[in-house]
Design brief:
Largest sheet: 6 strands, antiparallel
Distance between the termini: 49 Å
Number of strands: 16
CATH class of the largest domain: Mainly Beta
CATH architecture of the largest domain: Roll
Number of helices: 1
Strand order of the largest sheet: 1-6-2-3-4-5
Helix content: under 10%
CATH topology of the largest domain: SH3 type barrels
Low-confidence stretches: none
Length: 187
């Protein structure tokens, strides 16, 4: 058990029988009354977001999760297939609940898979990733308005908005949280 006042961002909690990750935490100490925390929680099974307010002296059950370095092998209709890089055991993460991460994962790359009671509940992506542009329309002469963008397709099938000077075959860095273009990468 952990006191609500001691909860930090990134802590995993058990609420209503489901594992939750604390995505945001705000401590509030009003002039009158007792202090409380506002939490934004992400259900690690369904991906659903829950907002919760707790008094700082309330007890909450903290859960132990483990992170394993795993290589992404391939995806099929049933799920995403990974291999534990330490034991070489292979396992599957269901597609349902991991659709967003699936748009960023590249075969052969290594990711951290979060396990709770032996079951995968989250796949942690790096904050920024580099992708090759596989399809991009050419910029039209005269489309030089400040901040002009176009939609391109990346090697994983993900579509993002980028500046009009990006061409097919170039590498771009993408923020995995916001799905936004960061910069062109020269190799």
């Amino acid at each position: 058990m952990i006191k609500a006042g001691s909860i930090d961002k990134g802590t995993c909690l058990l609420l209503k029988g489901d594992p939750y990750l604390v995505a945001e935490r705000e401590f509030v100490n009003p002039g009158k009354g007792s202090a409380f925390v506002r939490l934004k929680l992400k259900n690690l099974k369904t991906g659903q977001v829950l907002r919760q307010v707790m008094k700082t002296q309330d007890n909450v059950e903290e859960i132990a999760v483990e992170e394993k370095e795993c290589q992404f092998l391939y995806a099929d209709a049933e799920g995403y297939h990974f291999m534990n890089t330490e034991t070489y055991d292979q396992f599957q993460v269901p597609v349902e609940g991991f659709e967003e991460q699936g748009k960023f994962m590249k075969e052969g790359d290594t990711y951290k898979v979060v396990l709770w009671e032996g079951d995968p509940i989250d796949v942690k992506l790096p904050f920024k990733m580099v992708f090759t542009v596989t399809r991009a329309e050419d910029a039209i002469r005269g489309d030089t308005v400040t901040g002009a963008t176009k939609v391109v397709t990346l090697e994983t099938g993900l579509e993002v908005r980028v500046p009009i000077f990006i061409k097919q075959g170039e590498k771009v860095m993408i923020n995995t949280d916001t799905k936004e273009y960061v910069e062109r990468v020269n190799t």
